[in-house]
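User: Teach me something about this protein's shape.
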Amino acid sequence: MTGPNGAGKTNLVEGIHLGCQGFSFRTRSDAQLIRHGAKAAASTVEGRRGRVPMTSDVRLELQGSRRLRLDGVVVSSSEALRARIQALVFTPDRLAVVKAGPAARRAYFDRMLGRVFPARATIPAEYGAAIGQRNAALRRVAAGVSDRAALAPWNATVAELGSRLVEARHAAIAVLGPAFTELAEELGLADSRIAYAGEPLTSAELEAGLARDLERGTTGRGPHLDELPLLVGGQDLRSYGSQGEQRLAVLSLVLAEAEVLAARGGVAPLLLLDDALSELDERRRRILSERLGRVGQTIVTATGAEALPLAPAQLLRVAGGTVENG
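Assistant: First, the predicted structure itself:
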């Protein structure tokens, strides 16, 4: 998909993502997705999941709730829709996975582990809720309105869920890591790996840090504070990587996950790559394009067809809010 800057390429990709996943990758506000002056918006995506035809329909209203349907049947939530249709997106904002602080990487990998291991998808949220409850209990104890004994159940819950989260992260990285290393190497990032040294959490560790936790009102130990750096040649890309290397690393993550999901589930996810080829030299653009051809359907945006090193199966041109076959 090509077109000049500001033509609407990202809006179109966002609409496809909304139709497939039930939410935007840019905002969680439905009002921001509805055209100014309009009362509603809709995205309908038709295609095939493997050999099975499917139609997803998402409708938004300023004064109503979000409505989702898959093959005409009401879907209860965006999470339920994503469980049926998998789509992965790259935008320049995704560079935050490398450039931002540890919280951005934790969030990315926790979403990824939910896609790779659907049965474990709720663990990060359950752990986060338990941490929130323990922190609230800490503040009540510190204020003198509750007894320290009230913390014991939350210590046990946080330790159990924290250990399960650490185990799930290690399992997901064990699956994703080899594919990431291979792709990154092919794109010129030698000796690349996802580093994670998280360890199971115990109630004893939480008890040992209780004085400090009571003073600050927050839980100071656990996987909610873990780091998951991306390393190249033993160096953290966040501090030592160039903008181009950081882009290659995030693209390698996205493609690695796509290949893992395709291998595990038998159906490749839809890839949405918005402005993925900028800052890449011709050799890397060609390598990336060749790898994309092995994964499944991919929608790539660029300012011009010359940025696409290989001829696409279909070329769309976006201009003035309209889409035409190239």
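Now, about its shape. The domain at 99-264 is CATH 1.20.1050.90 (Glutathione S-transferase Yfyf (Class Pi); Chain A, domain 2). The mean pLDDT is 92. If you'd like, I can walk through any region in more detail.
User: That's plenty for now, thanks!
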